[in-house]
Amino acid sequence: MELTGAEIVVRCLAEEGVEFVFGYPGGAVLNIYDEVFKQNKFKHVLVRHEQAAVHAADGYARANGRTGVALVTSGPGATNAVTGIATAYMDSIPLVVISGQVPTAAIGMDAFQEVDMVGITRPCVKHNFLVKDVKDVAVTIKKAFYLASTGRPGPVVVDIPKDVTQHKTEFVYPKKVSMRSYNPVIKGHPGQVKRAVQMILDAKRPMIYTGGGVILSNASEELTQLTRLLGFPCTSTLMGLGGYPATDPLFTGMLGMHGTYEANMAMQHCDVLIAIGARFDDRVIGNPEHFFQDGRRIIHIDIDPTSIAKRVKVDVPIVGNVKDVLAEMTKLIQASKEKPDRPALKTWWTQIELWRSRDCLKYDRDSSLIKPQYVIEKMYEVTRGEAYVTSDVGQHQMWAAQYYKFDQPRHWINSGGLGTMGFGMPAAMGVQFAHPEATVACITGEGSIQMNIQELSTCKQFNLPLKIILLNNRYLGMVRQWQEFFYGNRYAESYMDALPDFAKLSESYGHVGMKIEKPEDVEGALKEAFAMKERLVFMNFITDQAENVYPMIPAGKGLSEMILV
Amino acid sequence: MENEAGALSRVAGLFSARGYNIESLTVAPTEDETLSRMTIVTRGSDDVIEQITKQLNKLIDVVKVVDLSEAGHIERELMLVKVRAEGEWREEMKRMSDIFRGRIVDVTDKTYTIELTGAGYKLDAFLEALDKGAILETVRTGASGIGRGERILKI
Questions:
Q1: Considering CB atoms only, which of B6, B17, B54 is closest to A123?
Q2: Which end of chain B has fewer CB within 10 Å, C or N?
Q3: Residues of A catalogued as catalytic
Q4: Which band of pLDDT confidence, cut at 50, 70 and 90, is reported for residue A485?
């Protein structure tokens, strides 16, 4: 039977087992929306801004590992989606974004709501397609899901002109698709894996450095097994938190610009570094030249060859899926007669414990003002460390990463690469759809939350009982901190004047609102809020305006040049 | 690479987005019409060339990347030069074209158009050898390259 392009789109999504499509209708996608209306295979989630649609699809994908789907119209719908797409691209999140396009005959005519979506998104997608023939719709969508979810994942855009959604053709959904130009490597090169294992067994001061790749490849179990087998210290990037249990003594905390003293010092002074699904980002190793003052051998495991030897020279590169490579390494180490050098390790751990005893995350617990760190600590206790936590971008993001100890993967959801303010709440919506019974919290700032605050309306429509933890310091805190440290206290445009009454705002959307101004009220408010399982609660914590995130490595400095409290 | 709309802009976009330099880029379909072949001339340290190679391979439309300069290869570029051919110039231009094995492909009483093929440096040398005042217009295709001997790039 012949189907229209629009029917085919909807059928393809059903074939892919899509549960939720996050979107916003418009002229160019009306045919598709008409078919969405007629089906019941997946649920459509109407957001209030296309950026939020993509962030929600992204949050959904991060929380459960499946490919997120967003549907937007042409022109402004498409451009609004771009920030969300770039966010997902930087963090390698599998998404399929379907955008409407003006009819093929109108392309290039500066038609109403026309924009060159394929051109605009080219630098921030894994791949994109403009479908010009209805016969190509099914195979293109199949390819889009395949590309998005395999290899190093990423967003794929499928741009479909309106006339293509009207035309008819026979519908066949391909069972499989293969592309001669796309063959991601899974298994690591056996010779390289062997070399790496030997290097690991010879190490005197080893360090395991993990990133988002561990989460993306679902390799937490393999990482935990290997780390415990070796007894090596382990650190994680912002993106990798939860990949290794944060409450485990082998875990030294997050590293990088706002990483712990012990993690950064161990990273700087180790003799063998095992980098796993991490990419030596500028926020992680700071100044590469300083990093190389202390020589060390580096093993780098990553599924993307371009991540290897991009910022640092590597001794043993292993291209492969982290999960497979770690399992292979564990097998080889278990079978080996050699064991890790225990006496050397003991000395190394003594050193690390000394660094750890600096207690770099200490803060003033006797303050009469609410300390943001305290809010996160209490929230960690109240949720027993089991919540899914999304964040926006800024100081609150770093405090969340430092003080909420994530023991499970996919529970910490934030925009690490692009650093997109406005990510937190829509991402939390996606997480809640992925895990309807789970506790989902969004830690945010008064700057970030206002970048997508309209989504409180979506939360009302779909009864999403999010817990919004606003650390309200009346400043764009991270900007203010940099201005204090590096710009002579000149707080250029970092003050947030004329803020709304967030509690009332939340109430006006039909949610619960709270304002908490005293440290002694923090715990009670959190308990009360998290007990309201059916309601969205917006908690406006009025926090210490002057608090800074410590430790901090100033931009361009080395890992051992931290500013401590 | 796949002979798809937009494939060229993906490559060009990659070079500009990552700050790699392109000296020349040529592209045309191959005998297999589903494929195009592109020759890019670029410059960079070994590390940069390694990254360029990897980044190109990562593009979904790119089927295979070969660094021709790693081994023996042939490089050819075509140039058309329009020169003054009046008075004393007329004989001089003919002679220079012969020396560089060029061909005069268009003649008027005031101009010659010379076609010249060779590696880029040969074309440069020809332009150097001509009196600057004699050159009216030049157009170059950019280099195309192929491996020497049994070295074959085919899918």
A1: B17
A2: C
A3: 50, 112-113, 162, 478
A4: very high
| Coil vs helix vs strand at A210 | strand
Give the pLDDT score at A1: 86
The answer to whether B50 contacts A309, with C-beta atoms less than 8 Å apart, is yes
pTM: 0.96
Q: What is the ipTM of this complex?
A: 0.92
Nearest CA in chain B to A132: B5
Q: Which DSSP helix (H) or strand (E) runs through B122?
A: helix B120-129
Tokens of A50: 């296309």
Residue A331 CB neighbours (<10 A): 12
CB contact under 8 A, A306 and B51: yes
- Torsion sign, CA atoms A49, A51, A54, A58: negative
**What does DSSP say about strands A467-472 and A412-413: parallel, antiparallel, or unpaired?**
unpaired
Return the sign of the alpha-carbon dihedral for residues B45, B50, B55, B56: positive
Specify the DSSP class assigned to residue B2: B
- In total, chain A counts a number of residues equal to 565
* Nearest-5° Cα angle at A181, A15 to B153: 160
Give the HSE-up count for residue A460: Cα atoms under 13 Å, Cβ half-sphere: 15
Sign of the Cα torsion A540, A546, A552, A555 reads positive
One-letter amino acid for residue A479 of the chain: V
Bond before A551 cis per omega within 30 degrees: yes
Long-range contacts of B46-51 (CB under 8 A, 24+ apart): B47/A309, B48/B20, B50/A309, B51/A306, B51/A309, B51/A310, B51/B18
Is beta strand B111-118 parallel, antiparallel or unpaired with respect to B73-84? antiparallel
Q: How far apart are CA A381 and CA A404, in angstroms?
A: 9
Sign of CA dihedral A288, A289, A290, A295: positive
The position carrying tokens 């392109």 is: B22
